[in-house]
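Student: I would love a firmer grasp of how sequence relates to backbone shape in proteins. Thank you; the sequence and its tokens follow:
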Amino acid sequence: MTSFKYMGEFKDESILPKRVQEGAIMFKEPDMNKFAIIANLLSLVLLIGLVVFTFFYAGRQYNTWGAVASILLLVPHEFLHAIWMKGDVFMYTSLKNMVLFVISTEDLTKGQFVWMSLFPTICFGFIPFLLFVFNSGWTFLGYLGIFSISMGAGDFCNVFFALTQMPNNAVTFLSGSHSYWYVPENL
């Protein structure tokens, strides 16, 4: 990451950085509004299933502080994405769509893109949740984990698109609100 800039409220795609790359293919993905709906529905399904499991696994205990902590980690979640991105990274918020996101127009390999997408959810979601699974008394970690996992739903969608649409030797980049891939000539 060369620099990180907070750009404020996302109003429409015209304000997002764009890149043109000859031969690049846009991911088959929904527009930003449909993507937000899909990600929020997936998030809700994950959250309900994991809350039910965690509530009973913890002996019918709920930990509000784990949920609060996951909300406080929304901005650090985006920073964890940003540290794996190259070039200038820009952060936007959209309270209307209930999303925060970062964008960079620089290339990432398929593996780098998957890692960048999953890293925050691994750190704030899966690791705390697994620690809770090993010790059901650590309800703070359990609820922190499940809320953080559910908040990674949009990232899971992006990983799915990359894994199912990109050839192994391709690189991806963001332009506007869409992801693109191409195979570099030097490979």
Residues 10 and 96 are 9 Å apart (CA to CA). The helical segments are 32-57, 64-72, 74-82, 110-134, 139-151, 153-165. The first helix runs from residue 32 to 57. The chain has a mean pLDDT of 93.
